[in-house]
Specification:
Elements lengths: L12 E2 L5 H15 L27 H4 L8 H5 L22 H4 L2 H16 L12 E3 L18 E3 L6 H6 L7 E3 L6 H16 L2 H6 L15 E5 L3 H10 L5 E5 L11 E3 L4 H7 L2 E4 L13 H6 L5 E4 L8 H9 L5 E4 L12 H4 L3 E3 L7 H21 L14
Parallel strand pairs: 2-3, 3-4, 5-6, 5-8, 6-7, 8-9, 9-10, 10-11
Antiparallel strand pairs: 1-2
Length: about 400
């Protein structure tokens, strides 16, 4: 959602035995809806408490907490559901009172964990043991660290990331467990960073910032510019809204080709070549899947205008880095602005660091300081909806991989 999972804390929130039956019923309801069957909305059952299961504090990198991907428009429908439960970290699987959080978490994680505890409690949750939990809210940590807290009772897992491919690839999520991601929760935050990259390129800010003498570059503008947004999920749609006041003309490229609000035109992937040829700016905001690997390669770059910029805020794997370096060196496109790269982290000495028309930000579009408030909102929403027997927000489609 590329995941730089170098370890971290897991704040685990769980619902104990009383919520187990609700978890079973809710899972069946979501499963039946996915199959196109009519499911009965069961009455609200007593809410179990939430558990804390913390390990020793480890310094977290923001990217580890929220490996991000520009969720494709397919995510629009599923990421608007909601019904979930649970959250928080603890120690040795025993109930941890609020006043013990500092001893258990410490350091930078203390504030983050508290930001997530509050939403759970506001939605009706309280700390409880892990055994018999129907739901788990996972905060940080590598995929292999999750299985020890799962049990046969687990029916739902909320992940902190928008991108879930490493979780699915690791095979740590049982098939009968409903999984939700944070897809869409960070859309506005990432869209703001995307717009900043776009403006930096069009106004030649990278060139001005590096100048050591008074100079007069030739900037362009987003006004009346054609912007191709490849992948109109949460991030893509948020970006389209930000571009509207600037007068840009947006062409959305989505899997279905259906109309996207705010876009002047929407097309399917079969028409992407013609869109690339007319775009002044190409923004990659699609999910990372087997189908989207090297979505932008040498043929696609060759179709772009010499005055066009490429912006990638999805995953590094969506762009063929070698082909991009070659295109920049040969001045076949105007520039590239990247918040994600392949490989990542981008090694010291890599050509992208030195190319004059490349702007690289180190996967920083969604820093921890901005991530936690949005994740807290998603947690509160899903806990409340779980208790109400409603669909969850951000249900992961394992077949499509996001």
């Amino acid at each position: 959602m590329d995941d730089r999972d170098r370890g971290g804390e897991a704040a685990v929130g769980q619902v104990r035995e009383e919520g187990l039956e609700l978890g079973r019923r809710q899972h069946a309801l979501v499963r039946d809806r996915a199959r196109g069957e009519r499911g009965e909305v069961h009455p609200k059952l007593p809410l179990g408490a939430l558990a804390q299961a913390e390990r020793a504090p480890v310094e977290l990198d923001p990217g580890e907490l929220a490996p991000r991907v520009g969720d494709d428009e397919l995510a629009e429908d599923r990421h608007d559901g909601a019904s979930a439960r649970a959250h928080e970290g603890g120690h040795d699987r025993h109930v941890a009172p609020r006043e013990d959080l500092e001893l258990l978490l410490g350091g930078d994680l203390l504030d983050g964990a508290r930001e997530l505890v509050g939403p759970v409690r506001r939605a009706g949750g309280t700390p409880a043991p892990a055994d018999g939990a129907a739901g788990i809210i996972w905060y940080g940590g590598k995929p292999p660290e999750l299985p020890p807290v799962l049990s046969p009772a687990t029916r739902w897992v909320q992940l902190p990331a928008a991108g879930v491919e490493p979780w699915l690839a690791s095979g740590v999520l049982p098939d009968d467990v409903l999984v939700t991601s944070a897809a869409g929760a960070y859309a506005t935050t990432v869209a703001e960073h995307t717009l900043a990259l776009m403006l930096a390129g069009t106004r030649r800010l990278h060139e001005l910032a590096r100048a050591t003498t008074w100079t007069r570059p030739s900037p362009s503008t987003l006004r009346d510019a054609t912007v191709a947004v490849v992948g109109a999920g949460g991030i893509g749609r948020a970006l389209i809204a930000l571009l509207a006041p600037l007068g840009a003309r947006v062409v959305a490229v989505t899997r279905s080709g259906r109309e996207v609000e705010g876009a002047a035109r929407s097309v399917g992937p079969d028409r992407m070549p013609e869109v690339l040829a007319e775009a002044d700016m190409v923004v990659v905001a699609a999910p990372a899947t087997a189908e989207t690997e090297h979505l932008i390669g040498a043929p696609e770059l060759a179709r772009m205008r010499r005055t066009a910029w490429l912006v990638n805020i999805a995953r590094g794997s969506l762009v063929d880095t070698d082909a991009l370096v070659a295109a920049l060196r040969e001045h076949r496109i105007a520039g590239a602005a990247l918040d994600v790269t392949d490989p990542e982290p981008l090694p010291d000495g890599h050509p992208l660091w030195d190319l004059p028309d490349a702007i690289v930000t180190p996967h920083s579009a969604n820093p921890k300081s901005l991530l936690l408030p949005r994740l807290a909102e998603r947690v509160e929403t899903n806990v409340a909806r779980f208790l109400a027997g409603e669909e969850l927000v951000g249900v992961v489609d394992r077949t499509r991989g996001y």
